[in-house]
Specification:
One of its GO terms (molecular function) is ATP binding. Its EC number is 2.1.3.15. This protein is α/β, with parallel strands linked by helices and 331 residues long. 48% of the residues lie in helices and 15% in strands. Strands 1, 2, 3, 4, 5, 6, 7 and 8 form an 8-stranded mixed sheet that branches. Helix 4 (71-78) packs across helix 13.
Length: 331
């Protein structure tokens, strides 16, 4: 049973009424087909109305859903012969970052992604999907290996941010992320990144310097969490919903701003309701992206990545004539 979020409570209540009515019809041997069909029709309308009018804060809640599919869920459904590789060859193996080699539609690829848990025990083991420096160094090791063997790189982004603890800072958290940004910018193989849940701060961008960046419809991508932004701007974390709207962190917003290349649609209610359909939606996007990028030369791939980030924040400066108020004819 998928856990309902607060904004989904009207849907849950109506579903409960339908189930109760079905049980009553069965136990009392009464024909309530017409009543049940009427409620089911109302349920479809209610679901469409609620999911079509989700606020940015609603999407934040969906992105954080405990049952939302993780990197390894998508790896299992999208790729063949996945072999996970471990360790950064320096300190240790960070379970908050997973990676390895696999086959996608017959093409050898390298896969890297943040990995959170779905239970309390697993979240603790994987540090809630917040990597230490060795996680980013493992990711970079796999990226350089992919470049050596000319394999496309596919990254799955899903983290609240890089782990901010003392031990992580002592081992060079900032340097590890910065190194990834520099090295990813110059990779000579196709790089595709998909934000599947939360894309938080530098922890996300450490896998985000790609030729193509996509977001699932109910994912988020931001420099800080809504709670953090509200605490800084208004000294009140309870205003997180207002901050989420102001920050424009949803997939549709970021597509309009040219921060990402596309939005991958989710089934009604979110990816956690329809994993198989979500896998197929991602498969189509990956196939299209690879068909565009694989014919490019090494130099073209680097230039394509450079151009993509260079155009972010472009603006046009109006001249004095363009900004001047029109002069009325009778003046």
């Amino acid at each position: 049973m998928v856990k309902m979020l607060k904004f989904e409570e009207p849907i849950a209540n109506l579903k409960k009424k339908i189930e109760e009515l079905k049980e009553l019809a069965h136990s009392a041997d009464i024909d309530m087909t017409a009543e049940i069909q009427k409620l089911e029709s109302r349920l479809q309308e209610l679901q469409k109305d609620i999911y079509d009018n989700m606020t940015p804060w609603d999407r934040v809640q969906v992105a954080r859903h405990l049952e939302r599919p993780t990197t390894l869920d998508y790896v299992k459904g999208l790729f063949d012969d996945f072999m996970e590789l471990h360790g950064d060859r320096n300190f240790g193996d960070d379970l908050a970052m997973v990676g390895g080699v696999a086959s996608f539609s017959g093409i050898p690829v390298t896969i890297i992604g943040h990995q959170r848990g779905t239970t309390t025990k697993e979240n603790i083991r994987r540090n809630f999907g917040m990597p230490h420096p060795e996680g980013y160094r493992k990711a970079l090791r796999l990226m350089k290996q992919a470049e050596k063997f000319n394999r496309p790189i596919i990254c799955f982004i899903d983290t609240k941010g890089a782990y901010p603890g003392k031990a992580a800072e002592e081992r060079g958290q900032s340097e590890a992320i910065a190194r990834n940004l520099v090295e990813m910018a110059g990779l000579t193989v196709p790089v595709i990144s998909i934000v599947i849940g939360e894309g938080g701060s530098g922890g996300a961008i450490g896998l985000g310097v790609a030729n193509r960046v996509y977001m699932l419809e109910n994912s988020t991508y931001s420099v800080i969490s809504p709670e953090g932004a509200a605490s800084i701007l208004w000294k009140d974390a309870s205003l997180a919903s207002e901050a989420a709207s102001a920050m424009r962190i949803t997939a549709r917003d970021l597509y309009e701003l040219d921060v990402i290349n596309g939005v991958i649609e989710e089934a009604l209610g979110g990816a956690h309701h329809h994993l198989k359909q979500q896998i197929e939606n991602i498969r189509v996007v990956l196939q299209q992206a690879l068909s565009e990028l694989m014919p490019l030369t090494k130099e073209q791939l680097v230039q394509d990545r450079y151009d993509r980030f260079r155009k972010m924040g472009e603006y046009e400066e109006l001249t004095a004539i363009q900004t001047a108020e029109p002069i009325a004819e009778n003046q």
